[in-house]
Amino acid sequence: MISHIHHGVSESFWISIALSVASLAYLRGWQQFRRQDRDNVAGWRGASFVLGLLFIWIATASPLAALDHELLTAHMVQHLLLMTLAPPLILLGMPRKKLLHGLMGEATHPAFSWLAATGTLVVWHIPSVFMLGLQSQVWHSVEQLSFLVSGLLFWSPVVRPSVSISKWPESSILLYLFLATLPCDILSGFLVFCERVVYPIFLSSPLSSGLSALEDQQCAGALMWTCVTIVYVVAGTIFTAHLLSTHRSAELAIPQLDSRRIAVPRTNPHRIEAI
Fold this sequence. Notes:
By secondary structure, the protein is mainly alpha-helical. The protein has one domain. The protein is 76% helix and 0% strand.
């Protein structure tokens, strides 16, 4: 049995430094934006961005990162933090200015974003590829980075539909979220109901958690199933509320325009000429 690699202390240290610097740089820039345009820079966006960076730290540099080679459940928590939780928080915390609008629109097209996220999820859970990430520190870093990048791509059309959607109706995002649950449900259901250990490398892990390798696998699948379902349902609910409020505002604006058009003929023509 090939042994696991171990998460290095030096790697955790440098990741922590990098995320701390990124957090401080962001907060400094956020304060400047806040002073210049307080009305359009909500206070909660700063907290959202920092919380997203905290989730990245938990997944890559905390004691949890040392457990992902021993427990599939810990490994699954990493994936969920990097792909499902941290990306939307980071995107919500970014400034709302439409910089590089055209480039972002192409890079975050819903079809491309969905394929990128689904492909990343499927490929890295193929047993041979999965084991490669556990046996090589370089490939493990590539795996984590790919989950974070694909997560940012996936959530961009949901968090910033005005930038990410060109000719697609915003309501299509609800279908987009529903279709995204399908590969997650298939994978998590397979892990839960499979009667054998899919990744034999965890058979050599110490049973310090009290779970067997098969029980650990079932726990990881159930965690993925539950977390993804809850997050996507919450996102879909918020997005639906946003659509309804937007349409409601548009409907209220129509009578005001009509009343102005009707009021023009009723004005006194003699007063207009006098003026």
